[in-house]
Amino acid sequence: MELSMKVHQFARGFWEHEPSLSLGCKRFRPLAPKLANTESGSITASFDLKSFIRPESGPRNKLGCSDEKRETTQVETQPGGTRWNPTQEQIRILEMLYRGGMRTPNAQQIEQITVQLGKFGKIEGKNVFYWFQNHKARERQKQKRNSLGLSHCPRTPPATSITSIITLDTLGEVEREEDSPYKRKCRSWGFESMEEERRYCKEEGDKTLELFPLHPEGR
Amino acid sequence: MELSMKVHQFARGFWEHEPSLSLGCKRFRPLAPKLANTESGSITASFDLKSFIRPESGPRNKLGCSDEKRETTQVETQPGGTRWNPTQEQIRILEMLYRGGMRTPNAQQIEQITVQLGKFGKIEGKNVFYWFQNHKARERQKQKRNSLGLSHCPRTPPATSITSIITLDTLGEVEREEDSPYKRKCRSWGFESMEEERRYCKEEGDKTLELFPLHPEGR
DNA sequence: GCAAATTAATGATTTATTCAAG
DNA sequence: CTTGAATAAATCATTAATTTGC
Protein backbone atom coordinates (compact mmCIF):
# COMPACT_ATOMS: atom_id res chain seq x y z
CA MET A 1 0.00 0.00 0.00
CA GLU A 2 2.52 2.51 1.05
CA LEU A 3 5.23 1.08 -1.12
CA SER A 4 3.13 1.15 -4.22
CA MET A 5 2.38 4.74 -3.52
CA LYS A 6 6.07 5.43 -3.41
CA VAL A 7 6.67 3.73 -6.68
CA HIS A 8 3.89 5.66 -8.14
CA GLN A 9 5.36 8.95 -7.14
CA PHE A 10 8.76 7.97 -8.33
CA ALA A 11 7.55 6.96 -11.68
CA ARG A 12 5.55 10.08 -12.05
CA GLY A 13 8.50 12.23 -11.36
CA PHE A 14 10.63 10.32 -13.74
CA TRP A 15 8.26 10.54 -16.63
CA GLU A 16 7.02 13.98 -15.90
CA HIS A 17 7.97 15.47 -19.23
CA GLU A 18 5.89 12.95 -21.06
CA PRO A 19 2.16 13.59 -21.12
CA SER A 20 1.79 9.93 -20.24
CA LEU A 21 2.74 6.68 -21.75
CA SER A 22 -0.45 6.52 -23.67
CA LEU A 23 -0.42 3.88 -26.28
CA GLY A 24 -3.37 4.08 -28.52
CA CYS A 25 -5.84 5.75 -26.32
CA LYS A 26 -5.87 4.02 -22.99
CA ARG A 27 -3.81 6.09 -20.67
CA PHE A 28 -1.76 4.77 -17.84
CA ARG A 29 1.00 6.12 -15.75
CA PRO A 30 4.31 4.75 -16.83
CA LEU A 31 6.14 2.96 -14.11
CA ALA A 32 9.27 0.94 -13.81
CA PRO A 33 11.71 3.22 -15.56
CA LYS A 34 14.44 0.67 -15.50
CA LEU A 35 14.85 0.57 -19.22
CA ALA A 36 17.63 3.04 -19.57
CA ASN A 37 20.11 1.71 -17.11
CA THR A 38 20.11 -2.02 -17.42
CA GLU A 39 22.43 -3.42 -20.01
CA SER A 40 22.41 -1.91 -23.44
CA GLY A 41 21.89 1.75 -23.87
CA SER A 42 21.24 1.35 -27.54
CA ILE A 43 17.69 0.38 -26.84
CA THR A 44 16.82 3.69 -25.39
CA ALA A 45 18.33 5.35 -28.37
CA SER A 46 16.27 3.73 -31.07
CA PHE A 47 13.17 2.83 -29.14
CA ASP A 48 11.33 6.07 -29.28
CA LEU A 49 8.60 6.17 -26.76
CA LYS A 50 7.26 9.39 -28.12
CA SER A 51 6.36 7.78 -31.34
CA PHE A 52 4.15 5.47 -29.37
CA ILE A 53 1.72 8.22 -28.77
CA ARG A 54 1.04 8.36 -32.43
CA PRO A 55 3.63 7.26 -34.95
CA GLU A 56 2.95 9.62 -37.79
CA SER A 57 0.70 12.66 -37.67
CA GLY A 58 1.74 14.91 -34.85
CA PRO A 59 -0.25 15.83 -31.76
CA ARG A 60 -3.72 15.33 -32.93
CA ASN A 61 -5.80 16.41 -30.05
CA LYS A 62 -4.62 16.98 -26.56
CA LEU A 63 -6.13 14.63 -24.06
CA GLY A 64 -9.26 14.13 -26.06
CA CYS A 65 -9.25 10.46 -25.44
CA SER A 66 -12.75 9.73 -24.41
CA ASP A 67 -14.41 11.62 -27.23
CA GLU A 68 -11.86 11.16 -29.89
CA LYS A 69 -11.74 7.46 -29.41
CA ARG A 70 -15.04 6.94 -31.09
CA GLU A 71 -13.85 8.44 -34.32
CA THR A 72 -10.17 7.96 -34.83
CA THR A 73 -9.05 4.88 -33.03
CA GLN A 74 -12.19 2.91 -33.50
CA VAL A 75 -12.82 1.36 -36.81
CA GLU A 76 -16.06 -0.48 -36.59
CA THR A 77 -18.11 1.92 -34.55
CA GLN A 78 -20.44 3.21 -37.17
CA PRO A 79 -23.40 5.17 -36.01
CA GLY A 80 -26.20 2.78 -35.36
CA GLY A 81 -25.44 -0.88 -35.16
CA THR A 82 -22.70 -2.08 -32.94
CA ARG A 83 -22.68 -5.76 -33.50
CA TRP A 84 -23.09 -7.78 -36.61
CA ASN A 85 -26.61 -8.77 -37.48
CA PRO A 86 -26.42 -11.56 -40.00
CA THR A 87 -28.93 -11.84 -42.81
CA GLN A 88 -30.72 -15.00 -43.75
CA GLU A 89 -28.51 -15.60 -46.71
CA GLN A 90 -25.37 -15.13 -44.70
CA ILE A 91 -26.55 -17.57 -42.08
CA ARG A 92 -27.55 -20.03 -44.71
CA ILE A 93 -24.20 -19.94 -46.39
CA LEU A 94 -22.34 -20.15 -43.14
CA GLU A 95 -24.35 -23.14 -42.08
CA MET A 96 -23.76 -24.72 -45.41
CA LEU A 97 -20.05 -24.30 -44.98
CA TYR A 98 -20.30 -25.63 -41.47
CA ARG A 99 -22.21 -28.65 -42.62
CA GLY A 100 -19.63 -28.94 -45.35
CA GLY A 101 -17.10 -29.57 -42.66
CA MET A 102 -15.55 -26.18 -42.10
CA ARG A 103 -14.87 -25.60 -38.46
CA THR A 104 -12.06 -23.11 -38.02
CA PRO A 105 -11.30 -21.38 -41.29
CA ASN A 106 -7.96 -19.79 -41.63
CA ALA A 107 -7.34 -16.16 -42.47
CA GLN A 108 -7.55 -16.59 -46.18
CA GLN A 109 -10.70 -18.60 -45.97
CA ILE A 110 -12.22 -16.06 -43.67
CA GLU A 111 -11.38 -13.32 -46.06
CA GLN A 112 -12.95 -15.08 -48.98
CA ILE A 113 -16.05 -15.93 -47.03
CA THR A 114 -16.30 -12.38 -45.90
CA VAL A 115 -16.13 -11.12 -49.44
CA GLN A 116 -18.82 -13.51 -50.52
CA LEU A 117 -21.10 -12.83 -47.60
CA GLY A 118 -20.56 -9.15 -48.06
CA LYS A 119 -22.86 -9.37 -51.05
CA PHE A 120 -25.77 -9.91 -48.71
CA GLY A 121 -25.03 -7.39 -46.03
CA LYS A 122 -22.35 -5.72 -44.05
CA ILE A 123 -19.93 -8.12 -42.51
CA GLU A 124 -16.39 -8.23 -41.28
CA GLY A 125 -13.85 -10.96 -41.08
CA LYS A 126 -14.09 -11.23 -37.38
CA ASN A 127 -17.81 -11.84 -37.65
CA VAL A 128 -17.12 -14.88 -39.73
CA PHE A 129 -14.47 -16.01 -37.36
CA TYR A 130 -16.65 -15.59 -34.30
CA TRP A 131 -19.56 -17.26 -35.98
CA PHE A 132 -17.62 -20.41 -36.55
CA GLN A 133 -16.24 -20.33 -33.06
CA ASN A 134 -19.62 -19.88 -31.47
CA HIS A 135 -21.44 -22.21 -33.76
CA LYS A 136 -18.99 -24.96 -33.17
CA ALA A 137 -19.01 -24.51 -29.43
CA ARG A 138 -22.76 -24.28 -29.17
CA GLU A 139 -23.34 -27.17 -31.44
CA ARG A 140 -21.03 -29.10 -29.21
CA GLN A 141 -22.79 -28.17 -26.02
CA LYS A 142 -26.18 -28.73 -27.55
CA GLN A 143 -25.08 -32.18 -28.50
CA LYS A 144 -23.74 -32.82 -25.05
CA ARG A 145 -27.00 -31.67 -23.56
CA ASN A 146 -28.87 -34.01 -25.83
CA SER A 147 -26.75 -37.01 -25.11
CA LEU A 148 -27.10 -36.36 -21.41
CA GLY A 149 -30.77 -35.57 -21.52
CA LEU A 150 -31.58 -38.70 -23.44
CA SER A 151 -29.22 -40.69 -21.25
CA HIS A 152 -28.34 -42.58 -24.35
CA CYS A 153 -25.23 -44.33 -25.40
CA PRO A 154 -23.05 -41.34 -26.18
CA ARG A 155 -21.03 -42.98 -28.89
CA THR A 156 -23.78 -43.82 -31.36
CA PRO A 157 -25.40 -40.89 -33.12
CA PRO A 158 -29.13 -41.51 -33.44
CA ALA A 159 -29.01 -40.99 -37.21
CA THR A 160 -32.01 -38.77 -37.29
CA SER A 161 -31.28 -36.55 -40.22
CA ILE A 162 -28.73 -36.26 -42.92
CA THR A 163 -27.55 -32.99 -41.56
CA SER A 164 -26.54 -34.40 -38.27
CA ILE A 165 -24.59 -37.12 -39.89
CA ILE A 166 -22.81 -34.72 -42.08
CA THR A 167 -21.88 -32.57 -39.19
CA LEU A 168 -20.74 -35.31 -36.94
CA ASP A 169 -19.53 -38.20 -38.93
CA THR A 170 -18.55 -37.69 -42.48
CA LEU A 171 -17.09 -34.27 -42.13
CA GLY A 172 -15.18 -35.25 -39.11
CA GLU A 173 -13.01 -37.31 -41.35
CA VAL A 174 -13.12 -34.74 -44.08
CA GLU A 175 -11.85 -32.18 -41.66
CA ARG A 176 -8.58 -33.90 -41.11
CA GLU A 177 -8.29 -35.18 -44.62
CA GLU A 178 -5.49 -33.09 -45.96
CA ASP A 179 -4.49 -30.68 -43.26
CA SER A 180 -0.92 -31.55 -44.00
CA PRO A 181 0.68 -34.52 -42.32
CA TYR A 182 2.95 -32.12 -40.55
CA LYS A 183 0.80 -29.87 -38.47
CA ARG A 184 -1.88 -27.30 -38.62
CA LYS A 185 -0.04 -24.18 -39.59
CA CYS A 186 -1.98 -21.70 -41.60
CA ARG A 187 -4.52 -20.76 -39.00
CA SER A 188 -6.94 -17.99 -38.44
CA TRP A 189 -6.77 -14.66 -36.62
CA GLY A 190 -6.01 -12.72 -39.76
CA PHE A 191 -2.90 -11.23 -38.33
CA GLU A 192 -0.67 -12.71 -40.93
CA SER A 193 -2.63 -11.18 -43.76
CA MET A 194 -2.70 -7.88 -42.01
CA GLU A 195 1.00 -8.00 -41.44
CA GLU A 196 1.65 -8.60 -45.05
CA GLU A 197 -0.69 -6.01 -46.36
CA ARG A 198 0.60 -3.36 -44.07
CA ARG A 199 3.65 -3.00 -46.24
CA TYR A 200 1.69 -1.84 -49.21
CA CYS A 201 -0.88 0.20 -47.40
CA LYS A 202 0.33 3.50 -46.20
CA GLU A 203 -1.44 3.55 -42.88
CA GLU A 204 -4.58 5.21 -44.10
CA GLY A 205 -6.12 4.48 -40.79
CA ASP A 206 -8.75 7.05 -40.12
CA LYS A 207 -11.56 6.70 -42.58
CA THR A 208 -14.43 4.43 -41.86
CA LEU A 209 -15.37 3.28 -45.29
CA GLU A 210 -18.64 1.62 -45.94
CA LEU A 211 -17.68 -1.21 -48.18
CA PHE A 212 -20.94 -3.02 -48.55
CA PRO A 213 -24.24 -1.34 -49.18
CA LEU A 214 -25.86 -2.72 -46.09
CA HIS A 215 -28.91 -4.46 -47.40
CA PRO A 216 -32.06 -3.58 -45.51
CA GLU A 217 -32.62 -7.08 -44.40
CA GLY A 218 -33.55 -7.93 -40.88
CA ARG A 219 -34.19 -11.47 -40.05
CA MET B 1 -22.37 -45.45 -40.93
CA GLU B 2 -24.13 -46.54 -44.01
CA LEU B 3 -26.13 -43.41 -44.26
CA SER B 4 -23.15 -41.16 -44.03
CA MET B 5 -21.55 -43.14 -46.75
CA LYS B 6 -24.56 -42.53 -48.88
CA VAL B 7 -24.46 -38.84 -48.27
CA HIS B 8 -20.86 -38.87 -49.09
CA GLN B 9 -21.41 -40.51 -52.41
CA PHE B 10 -24.23 -38.25 -53.23
CA ALA B 11 -22.26 -35.18 -52.54
CA ARG B 12 -19.40 -36.43 -54.56
CA GLY B 13 -21.55 -37.01 -57.51
CA PHE B 14 -23.14 -33.69 -57.22
CA TRP B 15 -19.92 -31.73 -57.07
CA GLU B 16 -18.01 -33.83 -59.47
CA HIS B 17 -17.28 -31.06 -61.89
CA GLU B 18 -15.56 -29.04 -59.22
CA PRO B 19 -12.06 -30.12 -58.34
CA SER B 20 -13.19 -29.84 -54.75
CA LEU B 21 -14.53 -27.17 -52.51
CA SER B 22 -11.08 -26.16 -51.55
CA LEU B 23 -11.06 -22.98 -49.66
CA GLY B 24 -7.62 -21.75 -49.03
CA CYS B 25 -5.66 -24.90 -49.18
CA LYS B 26 -7.36 -27.40 -46.97
CA ARG B 27 -9.41 -29.56 -49.17
CA PHE B 28 -12.62 -31.21 -48.24
CA ARG B 29 -15.40 -32.76 -50.13
CA PRO B 30 -18.35 -30.48 -50.27
CA LEU B 31 -21.47 -31.99 -48.87
CA ALA B 32 -24.98 -30.86 -48.28
CA PRO B 33 -25.76 -29.29 -51.61
CA LYS B 34 -29.06 -28.01 -50.39
CA LEU B 35 -28.30 -24.45 -51.16
CA ALA B 36 -29.89 -24.21 -54.54
CA ASN B 37 -33.31 -25.54 -53.80
CA THR B 38 -34.36 -24.15 -50.48
CA GLU B 39 -36.04 -20.81 -50.52
CA SER B 40 -34.47 -18.03 -52.51
CA GLY B 41 -32.77 -18.81 -55.71
CA SER B 42 -31.06 -15.46 -55.76
CA ILE B 43 -28.41 -16.73 -53.45
CA THR B 44 -27.19 -19.27 -55.88
CA ALA B 45 -27.01 -16.61 -58.48
CA SER B 46 -24.71 -14.23 -56.70
CA PHE B 47 -22.93 -16.53 -54.30
CA ASP B 48 -20.31 -17.86 -56.56
CA LEU B 49 -18.68 -20.90 -55.12
CA LYS B 50 -16.10 -21.00 -57.85
CA SER B 51 -14.66 -17.75 -56.71
CA PHE B 52 -13.97 -19.42 -53.42
CA ILE B 53 -11.17 -21.36 -54.93
CA ARG B 54 -9.36 -18.17 -55.54
CA PRO B 55 -11.18 -14.92 -56.02
CA GLU B 56 -9.08 -13.21 -58.62
CA SER B 57 -6.13 -14.72 -60.44
CA GLY B 58 -7.25 -17.74 -62.35
CA PRO B 59 -6.24 -21.34 -61.86
CA ARG B 60 -2.89 -20.97 -60.31
CA ASN B 61 -1.63 -24.46 -60.03
CA LYS B 62 -3.69 -27.57 -60.25
CA LEU B 63 -3.79 -29.57 -57.07
CA GLY B 64 -0.41 -28.37 -55.98
CA CYS B 65 -1.52 -27.83 -52.47
CA SER B 66 1.08 -29.59 -50.43
CA ASP B 67 4.06 -28.10 -52.19
CA GLU B 68 2.65 -24.82 -53.22
CA LYS B 69 1.44 -24.05 -49.77
CA ARG B 70 4.86 -23.22 -48.49
CA GLU B 71 5.31 -20.45 -50.96
CA THR B 72 2.08 -18.92 -52.02
CA THR B 73 -0.55 -19.29 -49.39
CA GLN B 74 1.72 -19.15 -46.43
CA VAL B 75 2.97 -15.84 -45.33
CA GLU B 76 5.23 -16.41 -42.42
CA THR B 77 7.04 -19.52 -43.49
CA GLN B 78 10.43 -18.11 -44.22
CA PRO B 79 13.26 -20.54 -44.67
CA GLY B 80 14.52 -21.30 -41.23
CA GLY B 81 12.37 -20.18 -38.37
CA THR B 82 8.74 -20.94 -38.09
CA ARG B 83 7.85 -19.31 -34.82
CA TRP B 84 8.81 -15.98 -33.49
CA ASN B 85 11.96 -15.92 -31.45
CA PRO B 86 12.07 -12.68 -29.55
CA THR B 87 15.28 -10.81 -29.02
CA GLN B 88 16.39 -9.49 -25.70
CA GLU B 89 15.38 -5.97 -26.55
CA GLN B 90 11.95 -7.01 -27.65
CA ILE B 91 11.38 -8.95 -24.48
CA ARG B 92 12.64 -6.07 -22.42
CA ILE B 93 10.29 -3.62 -24.03
CA LEU B 94 7.36 -5.94 -23.81
CA GLU B 95 8.00 -6.53 -20.16
CA MET B 96 8.32 -2.84 -19.62
CA LEU B 97 4.96 -2.30 -21.21
CA TYR B 98 3.53 -5.10 -19.18
CA ARG B 99 4.87 -3.67 -15.99
CA GLY B 100 3.53 -0.37 -17.21
CA GLY B 101 0.09 -1.87 -16.95
CA MET B 102 -0.64 -3.00 -20.45
CA ARG B 103 -2.45 -6.29 -20.46
CA THR B 104 -4.49 -6.68 -23.62
CA PRO B 105 -3.50 -4.09 -26.17
CA ASN B 106 -5.98 -3.37 -28.89
CA ALA B 107 -5.27 -3.61 -32.56
CA GLN B 108 -3.80 -0.16 -32.90
CA GLN B 109 -1.59 -0.57 -29.91
CA ILE B 110 -0.42 -3.90 -31.20
CA GLU B 111 0.42 -2.38 -34.49
CA GLN B 112 2.44 0.39 -32.94
CA ILE B 113 4.27 -1.97 -30.66
CA THR B 114 4.99 -4.19 -33.59
CA VAL B 115 6.48 -1.33 -35.52
CA GLN B 116 8.66 -0.36 -32.61
CA LEU B 117 9.80 -3.85 -31.83
CA GLY B 118 10.44 -4.44 -35.48
CA LYS B 119 13.54 -2.34 -35.08
CA PHE B 120 15.11 -5.14 -33.10
CA GLY B 121 14.10 -8.13 -35.12
CA LYS B 122 11.41 -9.64 -37.19
CA ILE B 123 8.07 -9.62 -35.53
CA GLU B 124 4.42 -9.71 -36.40
CA GLY B 125 1.40 -8.28 -34.74
CA LYS B 126 0.13 -11.62 -33.64
CA ASN B 127 3.38 -12.26 -31.84
CA VAL B 128 2.78 -9.20 -29.74
CA PHE B 129 -0.76 -10.20 -29.10
CA TYR B 130 0.16 -13.73 -28.11
CA TRP B 131 2.96 -12.53 -25.93
CA PHE B 132 0.61 -10.46 -23.84
CA GLN B 133 -1.90 -13.26 -23.66
CA ASN B 134 0.65 -15.78 -22.57
CA HIS B 135 2.52 -13.50 -20.27
CA LYS B 136 -0.60 -12.44 -18.50
CA ALA B 137 -1.85 -15.97 -18.12
CA ARG B 138 1.46 -17.33 -16.93
CA GLU B 139 2.02 -14.49 -14.56
CA ARG B 140 -1.38 -15.26 -13.17
CA GLN B 141 -0.73 -18.93 -12.70
CA LYS B 142 2.70 -18.31 -11.30
CA GLN B 143 1.14 -16.02 -8.76
CA LYS B 144 -1.49 -18.55 -7.93
CA ARG B 145 1.13 -21.20 -7.50
CA ASN B 146 3.03 -18.94 -5.16
CA SER B 147 0.08 -18.02 -3.06
CA LEU B 148 -0.80 -21.68 -2.72
CA GLY B 149 2.72 -22.88 -2.15
CA LEU B 150 3.34 -20.39 0.60
CA SER B 151 -0.08 -21.13 2.05
CA HIS B 152 -0.23 -17.49 2.91
CA CYS B 153 -3.06 -15.10 3.19
CA PRO B 154 -3.89 -14.67 -0.48
CA ARG B 155 -5.11 -11.14 -0.17
CA THR B 156 -1.93 -9.44 1.02
CA PRO B 157 0.90 -9.22 -1.47
CA PRO B 158 4.20 -9.90 0.29
CA ALA B 159 5.73 -6.67 -1.01
CA THR B 160 8.94 -8.28 -2.05
CA SER B 161 10.03 -6.15 -4.95
CA ILE B 162 8.93 -3.04 -6.71
CA THR B 163 8.21 -4.93 -9.84
CA SER B 164 5.72 -7.19 -8.21
CA ILE B 165 3.90 -4.29 -6.74
CA ILE B 166 3.78 -2.53 -10.01
CA THR B 167 2.42 -5.54 -11.73
CA LEU B 168 -0.14 -6.40 -9.18
CA ASP B 169 -1.20 -3.38 -7.30
CA THR B 170 -0.64 -0.01 -8.81
CA LEU B 171 -1.23 -0.94 -12.37
CA GLY B 172 -4.28 -2.84 -11.48
CA GLU B 173 -5.96 0.42 -10.81
CA VAL B 174 -4.28 2.06 -13.70
CA GLU B 175 -5.59 -0.64 -15.94
CA ARG B 176 -9.18 0.29 -15.41
CA GLU B 177 -8.48 3.94 -15.17
CA GLU B 178 -9.76 5.15 -18.48
CA ASP B 179 -10.80 2.12 -20.44
CA SER B 180 -14.09 3.83 -21.08
CA PRO B 181 -16.97 3.38 -18.67
CA TYR B 182 -18.82 1.64 -21.42
CA LYS B 183 -17.01 -1.56 -22.14
CA ARG B 184 -13.97 -3.00 -23.68
CA LYS B 185 -14.59 -2.44 -27.32
CA CYS B 186 -11.54 -1.68 -29.29
CA ARG B 187 -9.99 -5.04 -28.86
CA SER B 188 -7.29 -6.96 -30.49
CA TRP B 189 -7.29 -9.68 -33.13
CA GLY B 190 -6.37 -7.15 -35.78
CA PHE B 191 -9.33 -8.11 -37.84
CA GLU B 192 -10.74 -4.65 -37.84
CA SER B 193 -7.55 -3.10 -39.12
CA MET B 194 -7.23 -5.79 -41.69
CA GLU B 195 -10.77 -5.23 -42.78
CA GLU B 196 -10.11 -1.60 -43.30
CA GLU B 197 -6.85 -1.94 -45.10
CA ARG B 198 -8.14 -4.55 -47.42
CA ARG B 199 -9.90 -1.87 -49.38
CA TYR B 200 -6.67 -0.24 -50.37
CA CYS B 201 -4.53 -3.29 -50.80
CA LYS B 202 -5.12 -5.26 -53.93
CA GLU B 203 -4.44 -8.72 -52.55
CA GLU B 204 -0.75 -8.75 -53.29
CA GLY B 205 -0.54 -11.89 -51.29
CA ASP B 206 2.35 -13.88 -52.63
CA LYS B 207 5.60 -12.25 -51.72
CA THR B 208 7.30 -13.01 -48.49
CA LEU B 209 8.93 -9.73 -47.72
CA GLU B 210 11.66 -9.49 -45.20
CA LEU B 211 10.75 -6.32 -43.45
CA PHE B 212 13.28 -6.23 -40.68
CA PRO B 213 16.92 -7.14 -41.00
CA LEU B 214 16.77 -9.80 -38.33
CA HIS B 215 19.51 -8.81 -35.96
CA PRO B 216 21.98 -11.58 -35.23
CA GLU B 217 21.10 -11.80 -31.63
CA GLY B 218 20.74 -15.13 -29.92
CA ARG B 219 20.04 -15.14 -26.28
C1' DG C 1 34.12 -31.29 -25.63
C1' DC C 2 30.02 -32.82 -28.40
C1' DA C 3 25.89 -34.50 -30.08
C1' DA C 4 21.85 -37.27 -28.87
C1' DA C 5 18.30 -37.38 -25.42
C1' DT C 6 15.56 -35.09 -22.08
C1' DT C 7 13.53 -31.35 -19.91
C1' DA C 8 11.97 -26.61 -19.33
C1' DA C 9 10.05 -22.34 -21.47
C1' DT C 10 7.24 -20.39 -24.19
C1' DG C 11 5.05 -19.29 -28.76
C1' DA C 12 0.71 -20.54 -31.06
C1' DT C 13 -4.16 -22.65 -31.16
C1' DT C 14 -8.13 -24.34 -29.58
C1' DT C 15 -11.82 -24.70 -26.20
C1' DA C 16 -14.54 -23.08 -22.39
C1' DT C 17 -16.56 -19.38 -20.16
C1' DT C 18 -18.34 -14.97 -19.63
C1' DC C 19 -20.29 -10.56 -20.99
C1' DA C 20 -23.63 -8.03 -23.21
C1' DA C 21 -26.83 -6.49 -27.17
C1' DG C 22 -31.27 -7.15 -29.05
C1' DC D 1 -33.41 -16.37 -24.45
C1' DT D 2 -30.56 -16.34 -28.29
C1' DT D 3 -26.26 -15.18 -29.95
C1' DG D 4 -22.41 -12.01 -31.28
C1' DA D 5 -18.14 -10.58 -29.04
C1' DA D 6 -14.32 -11.01 -25.93
C1' DT D 7 -11.42 -13.06 -22.57
C1' DA D 8 -9.44 -16.79 -19.82
C1' DA D 9 -8.00 -21.42 -19.46
C1' DA D 10 -6.22 -25.44 -21.42
C1' DT D 11 -3.67 -27.54 -24.75
C1' DC D 12 -0.50 -28.32 -28.46
C1' DA D 13 4.02 -27.80 -30.54
C1' DT D 14 8.61 -26.00 -31.07
C1' DT D 15 12.69 -24.05 -29.70
C1' DA D 16 16.38 -23.27 -26.03
C1' DA D 17 18.56 -25.19 -22.01
C1' DT D 18 20.23 -28.99 -19.78
C1' DT D 19 21.73 -33.39 -18.91
C1' DT D 20 23.95 -37.60 -20.16
C1' DG D 21 26.85 -41.10 -22.34
C1' DC D 22 30.68 -41.38 -25.01
From TrEMBL, chains A, B:
Biased composition (Polar residues): 74-84
Domain called Homeobox: residue spans: 77-142
Compartment(s) of residence: Nucleus
UniProt cross-references to InterPro entries, sorted A to Z: HD, Homeodomain-like_sf, WOX4
GO molecular function: DNA binding; DNA-binding transcription factor activity
GO cellular component: nucleus
UniProtKB keywords: Developmental protein, DNA-binding, Homeobox, Nucleus, Transcription, Transcription regulation
One example of a Gene Ontology biological process annotation: cell division
DNA-binding region: 79-143
Entry protein name: Homeobox domain-containing protein
Family under the similarity heading: Belongs to the WUS homeobox family.
Originating organism: Nyssa sinensis
Positions of the UniProt region annotated as Disordered: 58-84
Compositional bias per record (Basic and acidic residues), positions renumbered to this chain: 58-73
First-listed, main subcellular location of the protein, grouped into a coarse class: nucleus
